[in-house]
Amino acid sequence: MERWAREEDSPPPSEQMAASYQKMRANPPWGAAPVWLDKEVAPLVDAMNAMKGIVTVESCCGHGEDPFRVWFYAESVNTVRPLFEVVSTRRGWRITFEEHNSDGDRDYIFCLKGPKGVRAYSQAVELAAAIAHREES
Questions:
Q1: 25 Cβ neighbours under 8 A, 6+ residues apart
Q2: Per-residue pLDDT of the chain (137 residues; tens, 9 = 90+)
């Protein structure tokens, strides 16, 4: 059993995830929209931040050497479902749920991971458009 799934853990991951989401939504560390985003990531980050219950906290286009990644908090696992439905139809993209330490506290974060290089950059733009279209519907 994964460490985060043990019964003796307190608070449960779902509560800690919701608390982390609320903290980031109320007081994002970057203030307004960050200006240091990789240009290849910006459209996808904007689309994800427009989704109800999701707030991104870090991203990297991979610079052709590493996978494309966007880390984000979600209000609940259910708020990730619309994003998962869009992502699951795209080859090479997936969402993971990870434990990590932030400011000495254990918390839980999602990561949208994609392929490397130019393929990832063009697919990220398409993914952003699909998310925006879904949100408009």
A1: 55, 73
A2: 344 444 455 556 677 777 777 777 777 655 555 556 789 999 999 999 999 989 888 899 999 999 999 999 888 888 999 999 999 999 999 999 887 666 666 677 899 999 999 999 999 999 999 999 987 87
Domain that holds residue 109: 10-136
d(CA 11, CA 99) in angstroms, rounded, equals 13
Which candidate, 135, 137, 114, 120, places its Cα nearest to that of 46?
Answer: 135
Per the structure, the count of domains in the chain is 1
- Here the CATH number for the domain that contains residue 85 is 3.30.1360
- Please report whether residue 2 resides in a domain: no
Burial of 105 (0-12, 13-18, 19+ CB in 10 A): exposed
Q: For the packed helices 117-136 and 42-49, what is the interaxial angle rounded to 10 degrees?
A: 30
